Amino acid sequence: MGRKNDVSYSQAEGWHITITLTESDACSSDTITIPKEQVEAKLFPWWSVKRSEGLLEPNSFEMVHLYEYESQITTAVAMKRDENGNFKLHGWSCVQGKRKFRTGDVIVFWWDKNFGRLNFELLMLANESFLT
Fold first, then answer.
1. Is residue 2 part of a domain?
2. Does residue 25 form part of some domain?
3. pTM for the whole thing?
4. How many structural domains compose the chain?
5. Which domain holds residue 80?
6. Strands across the sheet with 73-81, in order?
7. 120: nearest Cα among 71, 80, 47, 57
8. Can you tell me the distance from the alpha carbon of 127 to that of 92, in angstroms, rounded to the nearest whole number?
């Protein structure tokens, strides 16, 4: 789906961040965790140095527009580094409340340089094969 000028999943090849949802991602948490290596390799190159370095400061966060590619719904979330150095998207429960993702579902994220947002879509349902 998507709109004109959206950076699609296929256009972002090589820049995908693929996450298999844990029980807390799908059920009880307000956050979803993205490994620091993925954020540093796949998002930071698209961000300004100031934004990237700012996120590494203690107690700092960045507001990120999370855009579900299929439904075209945007949700503002706060990205913050956790005690292990990984990054959490705070506000994930707003997305989860609309979609009801399940433990084991595979979500793919990619940066949309045209709109300055983090696109995502469901790539694979739990215990099934790839959707795209």
1. no
2. no
3. 0.85
4. 1
5. 31-124
6. 17-20, 106-112, 117-124, 61-68, 73-81, 87-90, 31-34
7. 71
8. 22
| 41 lies in some domain | yes
Q: How far apart are CA 90 and CA 25, in angstroms?
A: 11
**Residue 20 belongs to a domain:** no
For residue range 76-116, list pLDDT tens digits in order: 999 999 999 999 999 999 888 888 889 999 999 999 888 99
- 109: which strand partners? 17, 120
Phi/psi at 79 (5° precision):
-100, 130
CATH of the domain at 108: 2.40.330.10
* Cβ pair 108, 121 in contact under 8 A: yes
The tens digit of pLDDT for each residue in 18-45 reads 999 998 888 878 999 999 999 999 999 9
Q: Which helix (H) or strand (E) holds 119?
A: strand 117-124
